[in-house]
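Appendix B. Raw example, untouched.
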Amino acid sequence: MRKGLYRTTPRDLEKRSGERRRMVLTELIQSNKSANQLAEAWELNPNSTYKVLLRLEKRGYCVRGAGNKFSAPFSITDGGKEKLRRLILTATALGGEVSGGVGELQAPLDGPVSLMRIPDIRNPKELLKRHTANQLIVEKKYDGYLTQLITGRLYSRNGRDLTDNFPFLVKGTKFTKLHLIGELIYRDPKGNQDESVVTHIAGTKDPGKALAKAAALPGMFQVVVFDILADEAGVIAQRSFSSRRERLEALNLPERASPIVIASQWEWDEFQEAFDESVDEGGEGVVIKTLSGKYLWRALGDQAPTSRDQWKHKKSLTDEFVVWSAYRTPKGSLMARFGQFWQGELVKVGELNNFSDDLELEIEKLLNAGPFVMEIKFDSRFAGPPGALRFPAFHRIRMDKPITDVRLPKEYS
């Protein structure tokens, strides 16, 4: 039997596992295969391989030729090739080994990807139970758009190209073959951050109008870079954060008064100083990182992984929720239903009203186009499923976040 062959395991039964699909598509990209041929090569029952082929066919990733269900050859489609590329990117991002036979599909990062989620931590001192102080570093958490700066172009966290709305940020940059991660922020003349200005300019459909609006503002836009996923040598996201930070510092980015700057860092014993300074200038708090941590990512469009080596500590508790419907109360106010995903199912967490008249109209307009992400403030969550919110209040609409990234914390599942 060949090394690394497919075996049915409990993990294969997980809904989101892509291992079976990846291995079958890898075989099909080399040559057409039938269920019998795959079963013989992998010493499996043909029923098992046929079921995988049938699922791929239903999704348009392969087509069946003439013959009965076990002997009919299946061939990969262009959609199947793209799916295989995404599955390979995901396996690479999660540290997996991908064997040969896929040629150009193993190309390095060449565009935006799905960036990892940073979990909240209420009491940062809990980290000292698992890490020593010298293993941790603190950075400010900025209040703007999470962005990807790739070879001179600027993308949002979900892959939208923002370059034409913010050309002045990337004009003249000499970054080639670099994939940088940072926060796009706006600072008013006093240095305070205002996320609503970023949303306004980013959401302007006409780049010319966006540029005119930005030019009329008294403050300045910046991209604060805090990580790097790839450089001229290829993907480096799997390296330790301390190694990636050294690579960032080698770019000689300034820390202030420039369109693109590098994020400042604080030692653990300077945590409160960093937090207070961040909040004073309109930031959200701090991000705590282990020096040994990797950066997790997946192919664009796939569900974002959650970091195991970074945590955010914010000035007030907030989280993202999917708003999927709303109704009018007997008094006429708009009540929005919101929830979070758990294993592919949207779980209702609660309802929220007390919106302004203008916001009610905006919510109704957004819902006409489908579910969207809303960030909600709250004091705490009740213990037990589904983690209902204590004193929820509207914070902001998050059009920069895909609904698939909104997930129910495990303790409330």
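End of appendix B.
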